Amino acid sequence: MGSIFVAPERGRFTVRVSGLVVLIGVLGALAHINFSTNHVKDRPRRILMDMDVDMDDFFGIFYLLKQNTSEFNLQAITISSNGWCNSGHGINHVYDLLFMMGRDDIPVGVGGEGGILPNATILPNVGGYLPIIDQLGSWDLVFRFWREYNEQEQTASFCDMQSVLQGTSTAGGCRYRQAIPVGAKGLLDVDTMYGLRKGFLPQGSRGYSPLEQPTAQQVMINAISAGPITVFLLGTHTNFAIFLMTNPQLKKNVDHVYVMGGGIRPQCTKSNNSKPGEECGNIGNLFLADSNPYAEFNIFQDPFAAYEVLHSGIPVTVIPLDATNTIPVTESVFKAFEQKQNTYEARYSFKALKMAHDTWPDNHFHEETKMATLLQNFFMWDYFMVGVAVSIMRNSSKDNGENEFAIMEYMNITVVTSNEPYGTSDGSNPFNKGSTTSKFKSGVHSGHVQTRVQDPFCLEKNKKGRCKDGYTMEVTGPDAVYVLVATEAKRNQDANSSLDREFYKSFLDVMNCPRQSGRFNISTQFPYYEEIFYKPDFGTRKKGKPFVFDIDMSTGDFIALLYLLKLPIEQIDIKQLSPLKYMAEEWAYVLSKGILVSPNGWASAATIDIVYDVLHMMGRDDIPVGLGDVFAIGQAEPTFPSLGDCKYKKAIPLGGGGLLDSDTLYGLGRDLPRSPRRYTAENSVKFGAPRDTNHPELRQPLALEVWKSIVDSIDPGSKVTYLTNGPLTNLAQVISSKSASSVIQDVYIVGGHVGYEKGNLFTVPSNEFAEFNMFLDPLAAKVVMDSELNVTLIPLGVQRTVSSFDCVLQRLEHKNQTPEAELTQNLLSRLSQLQQKNDRYHHMNTFLGEVLGAVVLAGDDPLLNQTFQPMPLKILVDGNVKKDGLVVIDEKQGRLVKVLRSVNAAAYYDHFVNVLMNQIQSARIGSFAAQKRIWSTPPNRLP
In degrees rounded to 5, what are phi and psi of residue 782? Predict the structure, then answer.
């Protein structure tokens, strides 16, 4: 079956895991009594790095890659999928970093579609998108599966169970990850590296591709099975913990594990006036530490995984906040780095560091503090760990962790995975689901597990938070593990140096060393590189009706966008475009007003760069793009709106067929030409920033700002048509803005489900008749449906009638394709092939159906034979995910909505393909390959 760790009886699972940890701890300590037992003298140290691609992670990559390869050899990199990056953006970021450094030989792994069944069986290739505790199967699907089989008086096999879970195991909640901001100052800035990544890094031939990308587990197994290796953990521990649990026979090959994470001892300042408990700051560094002041991000994202690693018996060295809090990026370091950037890696690193500095929310960026919070200062986290690890390995003949950069001490510690009292069941802990089915009836894993950032259980009035999930705590007794810990960064031996830590000088020297340096960046990779803005010249041609396109950046949205960009901007005879014989007097829309992006749907916020690239391809760099809220209405934390819950978005898979694929346009996003426009963290005091950055004029506008500019720009009496293809968050906020009803003429909503067939919310089977766009923000949907706007609904049922891949692809098979038709064919071909190859892609037709709204908006083509029906509709929303987002017919309380009921499918396919194939308003630059040819050719030789 492919299962590796099987525990058919839940009680035995407790004994096996708990006992295994203790036994491994004893035997492992004996087997690894010397750090270099498995190391062969005079051979380079083989290293595997597991990371989440934040700034300090790639600083660590650079520092390691620039070491002497006869001493240290980076064998592989795996991406932590539940930490400080989204997997699709993270994997391509790493590929580009390695390409710049000339290291395309290093394999990179990310994700995987395996899950963990409720009986604790670990399927192959668990992707690590969720913490281990939340990967115990897809409970709703499992229970539904068993119920249906019991009703039929059949017996479910393991293969049947595995089939049910296939494709849904990467959908799940964010109990720990919601501690990480999703937008600016969080995942958005990490995924784009503050907007610097696409404007600086070169792009090689490697990139994410569905079903071809090596998984994290595959890369780990290959690297570790090849011989003795050292593991660097710079992010969450999920990937490596899963590896240890499923490959115990390979554990002997792991010489040592170095961890950046945790906080062990409080750092205190005492005074004569101090009261007990008041002299010490928080041990951890989480935002909103009033619920958990003990945890550090890397450990908190998966405490049980960190526990498994720590208790594995492999020697572990920890570089916790205790040490990193003593090595801030001081003003002296910052200035020294600013004055010396002799390599491409140094330049990229400083650009990122400077942007972090310039957008820091207060003036404490450079300060060392006893209060370890990211809002106060910026430290050398992961790359300090890499420096300490490298130095220790150079001195491996000594077993006391002697190194140049940190003071070390042995401690007895463990990782807290749940909170007292143990052995109780309050619904928070999947390991402890009721007294009769408990996997851990007693012990450290059986207590309350923090459910969210502001878990009421964790909050105590006028006291520190009581939760300790992820706390690397000093303990005694059988749960203690004896590990080497860095406690403080060493001072510079040169007392006269402004760089007062030893590692400061080493880091700057290594980054600027010409040895093993980066080869080029994007602007020097090509001799004639130039960023060009394409804007159309419509001259005196009459423009049609203005409209706004609101998208969540699913694949269907991009295909619809290509179609809309092809529509003529004036009254035309359609006979010039296609065989459809009619005059379209009112078919002339021009997409000149704006695109609003909803990043709380099928793609993450950083995917806005693909929107810019598509517009650039089509020569429409004049169209503004506004970025909407990253949370559905009511999901942001009131006291800290950068954080929030994923109550509805958790329905979207994080891996294949979900965010991983959407964020990369199913691996085809890198084929698009690079736009000179992209997301940037550049900001301005004018918009509330603490200071102006270097280029505040480049600031990424917000969705409501773009909407306001549209309202201000239209002629008096003019109105705008609004087409939305995703959650209705932006539209609900627009409705709440001034004069929305007087400016909006019509609203077209692609979404909702009216009928008796099941909806498409396949990851929430308890909500059988809902549709994703309505479900992802049901409160926003209610605001829109309760408004007085003229709403036309293009529901799921009619979308399904025009969702045939074969019908579109057959019509696209022509030799004289436009670039946009070719891109559409490549996208749809890939979706169709994926659907045929793997069950996790069973829902691909949904994205093709989303194009229908654009065609309906374009005009009343008689051959399409569209039929509409007014229906009294109502949106259900009461906080219950079993009903939220349902569209119901309600004769008494519903409002009349114009609903598209049918369309001539054959005419629709003909019309859609003919528009894409027409040479008018075709792409200005068809692909990244075409762009590279231009950048490689002297201007006087271009055709």
Answer: -65, -40
DSSP label at 230? E
CA gap 626, 223 in Å, rounded = 43
Is the model's pLDDT at 53 over the cut of 90?
yes
β-bridge partners, 659: none
Tallying the residues shown for the chain, one arrives at 943
DSSP string, 544-602: -EEEEEEE---HHHHHHHHHHHHS-SS-EEGGGTSS--SEETT--EEEEEEEEE-TTSS
Name every residue whose Cβ is closer than 8 Å to that of residue 920 and which is 6 or more positions away in sequence: 566, 568, 577
Q: How many CA atoms, within 13 angstroms, populate the side-chain half-sphere of residue 408?
A: 22
Please, are residues 669 and 95 in contact by the beta-carbon 8 Å criterion?
A: no
Angle between helices 344-358 and 87-100 (to 10 degrees): 140
- Two structure tokens written together for 890: 């309600």
Cα–Cα distance measured from residue 277 to residue 605, given in angstroms and rounded to the nearest whole number: 41
Q: Judging by DSSP bridges, how do beta strands 406-415 and 472-474 pair with one another?
A: antiparallel
Q: Tokens 């006979």 belong to which residue?
A: 575
Q: How far is the C-alpha of 568 from the C-alpha of 585, rounded, in Å?
A: 11
Joined together, the tokens standing for residue 601 give 């749907």
- Tokens 């308890």 correspond to 766
Amino acid identity, residue 608?
I
The tally of CA atoms less than 13 A away on the side-chain side of residue 908 is: 24
With CA atoms as reference, report the closest residue to 665 among 602, 741, 597: 602
Nearest to 725 by CA among 771, 789, 773, 760: 773
pLDDT tens digits, 792-804: 999 999 999 999 9
Q: How many helices (H) and strands (E) does the chain have?
A: 32, 22
The stretch 493-520 carries a mean pLDDT of: 94
Residue 43 is predicted with a pLDDT of 85
CB 466 within 8 A of CB 419: yes
The predicted model gives 455-475 an average pLDDT of 91
Helix (H, G, I), strand (E, B) or coil at 283: coil
The number of beta carbons lying within 10 Å of the beta carbon of residue 411 is 20
Please, what's the b/e burial string for 701-723 (b: 16 or more CB within 10 A of its CB; e: otherwise)?
A: bbbbbbbbebbeeeeeeeebbbb
Q: Is the dihedral of CA 137, 139, 144, 149 positive or negative?
A: positive
- Note whether 112 and 83 are within 8 A (CB): no
Structure tokens given for 366: 């450079």
Report whether pLDDT(611) > 90: yes
Provide the whole-model pTM.
Answer: 0.90
Distances in Å between the Cα of 78 and the Cα atoms of 87, 457, 519, 612, 879 are 10, 35, 23, 29, 37
3-state class of 621 per DSSP?
A: coil
Cα of 425 vs its chain's centroid, Å: 32
Q: If 0-12 CB within 10 Å is exposed, 13-18 middle and 19+ buried, where does residue 471 land?
A: buried
Three-state DSSP at 385 gives helix
Transcribe 655-708 into DSSP letters: STTTHHHHTTTTTTGGGSPPPS--------GGGT-SS--S-GGGPPPBHHHHHH
What stretch of H or E contains 615? helix 608-617
Q: Which two tokens stand for residue 140?
A: 């709703």
Count CA within 13 A, CB hemisphere, residue 899: 23
